[in-house]
């Protein structure tokens, strides 16, 4: 499990740089590499696989069920999700059986059934990129959320027929009605009971966020297990029903427990992110096993198996394309004024949008190893290989075809691409864009807007700065300035940023010269010892050396922290070795810090006031950033000479931080009203400020607890 999680994390790091490759393919490749290089295998307990992977995935789909569009298109959506799945199972199964006669018909049906569900995130990603007609986009998106359940039911029946060797149409229909209705009622009843329990516990004062989050996370596993083991109905339908019911009840305008909502959503994001990634890594690990078993069987070689996988994908695309073309044609005939002409290109796009994903993989990996007679499950290895091949081919085909047919060059997203960007993909700007198609106000990027509101926060802190809170104020301002500099790197032109950095290097050299001169004066006046003088001079020389090799990138925070830690540790060790009077040496160091910082500010002021220097040529932010750094040094040195008042300092930090966040909120509203940012950007910025405020509240709570 540790290795699988590490591979999932590593795949997303690679995906950050190779954005044109779906992260699912990267995860498959990493799993394949681990299996081939280290002969790594994952012992799968198939009975547990559906419970651990399918239950949470489908419950989460139900929780995020978009009601408005799907309810409006409920007829076509349920038609696609049920009838298209069964058509794919029957027709696709017969065609796969004709393609591979050595595969039993029931196994071919099971393979077609588990290949029928589509990845909902991939479908939505493709639909947005290729600009499908609105109704068709909602249709394929809605269908992809529901067809998991129908595909898994058909798959279960085909597997049962293979295991038992018996199949009766009448019995199958009766069983289907039973497991569907009872599964639906089970999800409805158990979810209602769990929600009632949560309400009772909350009224009893058991409203702890962590407790309720764990209770919600456990819900799909409990419902699936109880439905399957006790009622012998469809746990798949039960968890989907439970998810939809939970979403319907929780979709209120004002949340009674917003903290629980936020925590639960983020925990679910982590779970789905991990499960999807693990499934595709396992797929890569299982590929060599399936390939070797197919070859050892002696019936097929590798090229034949690859041909079977490719032709199975072609069959699925053809069925989906013809079904979609028929739907568009029906729309055209029944809506005479419809703009959606029955273009075969649109139908092909819909066919290609049927990317297979985690549900297909989880299902096929759950196929039992033996049947009722004790013999091995027929063609299990070939079934696994073909299903894996179809998943990979569908991902590759979408990745290659999308750039050719899409004007929007965004990379393909799949369920395994789960991220904050996808979770927060809310478009609030459609109406504004239609109403004001040509907005004369300059739109700024989200990074530029963040830098702007942070400058407002700095202005507010400067306004509130007093002699008794200067250290806290300068610490906060310095933190803000480092973030602003990092943001500027992303949105300002390289030439502009290079000029800013060149100016800052020139000004820093002036300041360093002032520091060095004052340090010599302190030594000549015997205000400091030779030990303190040498240590301070070495620090100035190191700083000067770094200026000559600056690359334009700030040192990572962790490295910078440990660099300062070891520098102070080395200095304290030197004090201990060279003198018994460490207190005097510490006092000398504080004196050096104060006086050299003052000298640096004075040197900068004199340099900028010279008649041969054009003060306007320097970036104001660079000058201000440098002065704040030196003022911060002065305040820290002063604080070191006084008795510790850490509580006062932290209290001052918190007060200033609250006021700064208020200034940031005001800045967001100003940018929105001026038209410089869209509603979507404003929402993201407010979310950022809210998160910052939550962190502040958490730190305050920790302090009170202490």
Please describe the topology of this protein.
Elements: H1 2-17, H2 23-38, H3 46-63, H4 67-72, H5 74-99, H6 105-115, H7 120-129, H8 134-164, H9 169-203, H10 209-231, H11 235-250, H12 258-296, H13 302-334, H14 344-352, H15 358-365, H16 380-405, H17 420-423, H18 430-435, H19 446-464, H20 470-491, H21 494-524, H22 530-548, H23 557-578, H24 582-608, H25 620-641, H26 646-674, H27 679-705
CATH architecture classification of the largest domain? Up-down Bundle
Strand content: under 5%
Could you say which overall geometry the principal axes of the C-alpha atoms support? elongated
First-to-last CA distance: 36 Å
Count of DSSP-assigned helices = 27
Helix % is over 70%
Q: What's the short version?
A:
78% of the residues lie in helices and 0% in strands. The chain has 706 residues and is mainly alpha-helical. About 3% of the residues have low confidence.
Task: Describe the overall structure.
This is NhaP-type Na+ H+ and K+ H+ antiporter. GO terms for molecular function: potassium:proton antiporter activity; sodium:proton antiporter activity. It is a multi-pass membrane protein. By secondary structure, the chain is an all-alpha fold. It has three domains: 43-257 and 283-404, Na+/H+ antiporter like fold (Up-down Bundle); 446-491 and 643-705, no CATH class; 500-550 and 582-641, no CATH class. Helix content is 78%, strand content 0%. Helix 20 packs parallel to helix 26.
């Amino acid at each position: 499990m540790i290795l699988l999680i590490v591979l999932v994390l590593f795949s997303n790091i690679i995906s950050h740089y190779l954005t044109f490759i779906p992260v699912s393919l990267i995860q498959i490749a990493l799993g394949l590499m681990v299996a081939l290089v280290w002969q790594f295998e994952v012992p799968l307990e198939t009975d547990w696989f559906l419970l651990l992977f399918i239950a949470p995935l489908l419950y989460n789909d139900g929780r995020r069920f978009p009601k408005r569009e799907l309810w409006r298109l409920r007829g076509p959506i349920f038609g696609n999700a049920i009838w298209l799945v069964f058509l794919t199972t029957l027709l696709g199964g017969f065609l796969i059986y004709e393609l591979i006669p050595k595969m039993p018909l029931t196994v071919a049906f099971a393979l077609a059934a588990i290949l029928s569900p589509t990845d909902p995130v991939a479908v939505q990603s493709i639909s947005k990129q290729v600009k499908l007609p609105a109704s068709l986009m909602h249709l394929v998106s809605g269908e992809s959320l529901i067809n998991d359940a129908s595909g898994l039911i058909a798959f279960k029946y085909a597997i049962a027929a293979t295991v038992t060797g018996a199949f009766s149409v009448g019995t199958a229909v009766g069983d289907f009605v039973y497991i569907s209705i009872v599964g639906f009622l089970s999800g409805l009843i158990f979810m209602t009971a769990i929600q009632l329990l949560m309400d009772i516990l909350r009224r009893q004062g058991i409203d702890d966020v962590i407790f309720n989050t764990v209770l919600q996370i456990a819900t799909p596993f409990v419902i699936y297990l109880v439905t399957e083991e006790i009622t012998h109905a469809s746990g798949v339908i039960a968890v989907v029903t439970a998810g939809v019911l939970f979403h319907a009840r929780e979709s209120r305008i004002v949340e009674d427990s917003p903290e629980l909502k936020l925590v639960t959503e983020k925990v679910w994001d982590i779970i789905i992110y991990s499960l999807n990634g693990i499934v595709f890594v396992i797929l890569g690990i299982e590929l060599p096993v399936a390939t070797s078993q197919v070859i050892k069987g002696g019936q097929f070689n590798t090229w034949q198996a690859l041909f079977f996988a490719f032709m199975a994908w072609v069959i699925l695309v053809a069925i989906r394309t013809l079904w979609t073309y028929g739907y568009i044609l029906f729309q055209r005939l029944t809506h005479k004024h419809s703009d959606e002409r029955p273009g075969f290109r649109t139908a092909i796009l819909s066919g290609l949008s049927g990317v297979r994903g985690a549900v297909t993989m989880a299902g096929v990996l759950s196929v039992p190893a033996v049947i009722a007679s004790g013999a091995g499950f027929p063609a299990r290895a070939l079934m696994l290989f073909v299903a894996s091949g179809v998943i990979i081919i569908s991902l590759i085909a979408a990745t290659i075809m999308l750039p050719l047919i899409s004007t929007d060059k965004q990379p393909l997203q799949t369920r395994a691409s789960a991220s904050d960007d996808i979770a927060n993909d809310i478009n609030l700007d459609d109406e504004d864009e239609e109403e004001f198609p040509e907005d004369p106000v300059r739109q700024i990027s989200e990074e530029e807007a963040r830098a702007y509101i942070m400058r407002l926060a700095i202005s507010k802190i400067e306004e509130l700065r007093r002699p008794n809170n200067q250290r806290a104020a300068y610490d906060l301002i310095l933190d803000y300035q480092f973030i602003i500099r990092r943001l500027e790197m992303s949105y300002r032109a390289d030439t502009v940023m290079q000029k800013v950095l060149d100016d800052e290097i020139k000004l820093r050299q002036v300041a360093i010269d002032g520091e060095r001169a004052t340090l010599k004066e302190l030594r000549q006046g015997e205000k400091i010892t030779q030990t303190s003088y040498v240590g301070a001079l070495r620090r100035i020389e190191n700083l000067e050396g770094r200026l000559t090799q600056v690359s334009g990138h700030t040192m990572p925070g962790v490295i910078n922290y440990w660099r300062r830690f070891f520098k102070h540790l080395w200095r304290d060790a030197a004090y201990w070795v060279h003198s018994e009077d460490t207190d005097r040496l510490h006092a000398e160091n504080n004196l050096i810090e104060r006086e050299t910082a003052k000298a640096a500010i004075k040197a900068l002021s004199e340099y900028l006031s010279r008649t041969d220097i054009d003060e306007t040529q320097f970036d104001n932010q660079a000058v201000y950033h440098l002065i704040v750094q030196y003022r911060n040094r002065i305040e820290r040195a002063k604080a070191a000479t006084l008795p510790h008042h850490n509580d006062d300092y932290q209290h001052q930090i918190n007060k200033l931080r609250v006021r700064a966040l208020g200034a940031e909120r005001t800045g967001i509203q100003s940018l929105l009203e001026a038209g410089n940012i869209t509603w979507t950007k404003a929402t993201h910025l407010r979310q950022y400020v809210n998160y910052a405020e939550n962190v502040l509240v958490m730190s305050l709570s920790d302090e009170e607890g202490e």
